[in-house]
Amino acid sequence: MNIDTLWNACLVGDRKAQFQLYQMLSGKMFGVCLRYAQDEAEAEDILQAGFIKVFTKGQLFENKGSLEGWIRRIMVNTAIEQHRSKKRYMTEPLLPDTPITASGINSDSNLHYQDLLSMVKQLPVGYRTVFNLYIIEGYSHKEIAEMLSISESNSKSQLSRARQWLKEKLEKLENVGL
Amino acid sequence: MNDKDLDKLFKEKLENISVSPRQDLWQKIEGQLDEKKTVRLGRFGWMRYAAVAVGSLGLAALLYTFFLNEDPAVEQKQLAYQGSTKTAVNPPLPEQPSAIEKSEVNSAAASQKNSTVGLSNHTEVAVQIVKKHVEPQLNMEMSSNELITLEPAALSVYSTPELSVETTTPQYAIEIAPIQPLIDDPEIEETMLASAQSSGEGIVPNILNKISDALNPSDSKSIQFSKDEEGSLRLDIFNSLVKNRNKKRR
């Protein structure tokens, strides 16, 4: 089935088509959600809310760019909204070092994505969001500042702190691995 | 490791990760989608009911104003008629007593007493007719005759334009029932008075009243506890609410 016809069926409210689209994209989108969430439960909440938005506000998608990109943006925005709704937790203290399951790795290239992901998850929510938006999604600091309603310099400093934090973690991991 | 390497590492490893979520998550999403649909339907249903309610209210209001307008219109017509007849009455004023006398002569055939009363104040027919109808209570035997004779008398008066006004007004006067007191029993009346509620207070209201008096001796009337026959406690706050409101606004 072509993705366009599938999407049109989704817009009409065809539950089967919606399920097909969900099956097609849920893995990738859950990956996106996991990067922004503190834990799996939060990621599931984001994914659920995101897909609800996709199916209820599907008519807002104006066939510019790929559908997948649009859905991905929705997931990211949903994640940011979730953080905003729980803003008081934005300043939560860093979790104590949870041991990263280094499964026989001795170099960067062998690092498994799970290790990196768990590192990202351990970042404070502010650092994590900026890091995700800038490094992985590729937004500019200006865009990030607008999305998070923070200043550009704040975005920059959060990113540099996130990098610093991750570097330290990676070095620790390498030491463990060696 | 510089920033670029770090960025590259994370971007490559994390950009396109695919992790399948829990199996039952779709059920949750589906459930929420169904819920939204029913909610939307429900909202429309509610709106329909609201529309019906508003419509019926509007209709009721329309009918109410319609009937309300109709009555004054009739009265106004009557008033206008009265006015026009009254102006017409003025020139043939001397005729009036004679016309009344005519009618009185007709009715006098039935009762002499009535005619004498009518003659004594011959300018006010309304009073006469009221009296005519009060009289049947006094002497029931004459009432039937009187009523029969009254009708031709009224008709004869009605034929003359001067008196048509006076014949319409008694219609209101006849229908008035004797005024009776709303409350027959003086005891009931007593309980309805505001000052009488202090009688028969229980122990608890008494204690509470004492406490409130002790706390605020300057105005003991502002808070009053009382108990009624059914045993429910009642708290009367007199001026405090107004003060509290000001305090809240502060």
TrEMBL record, chain A:
- What's the superkingdom here? Bacteria
Q: Which residues form the RNA polymerase sigma-70 region domain?
A: 21-88
- Gene Ontology biological process terms from the UniProt entry: DNA-templated transcription initiation
Q: Does the keyword Transcription apply?
A: yes
InterPro entries linked: RNA_pol_sigma-70-like, RNA_pol_sigma-70_dom, RNA_pol_sigma70_r2, RNA_pol_sigma70_r4_t2, RNA_pol_sigma_r2, RNA_pol_sigma_r3/r4-like, WH-like_DNA-bd_sf
SUPFAM superfamilies listed in its UniProt record: Sigma2 domain of RNA polymerase sigma factors, Sigma3 and sigma4 domains of RNA polymerase sigma factors
Q: What range(s) does the RNA polymerase sigma factor 70 region 4 type domain occupy?
A: 114-166
Give the keywords, sorted. Sigma factor, Transcription, Transcription regulation
Named from the GO MF annotations, one term is: sigma factor activity
State the family named in the UniProt similarity comment for this chain: Belongs to the sigma-70 factor family. ECF subfamily.
PANTHER family, per the entry: RNA POLYMERASE ECF-TYPE SIGMA FACTO, RNA POLYMERASE SIGMA-70 FACTOR ECF SUBFAMILY
The protein here is known as RNA polymerase sigma-70 factor, ECF subfamily
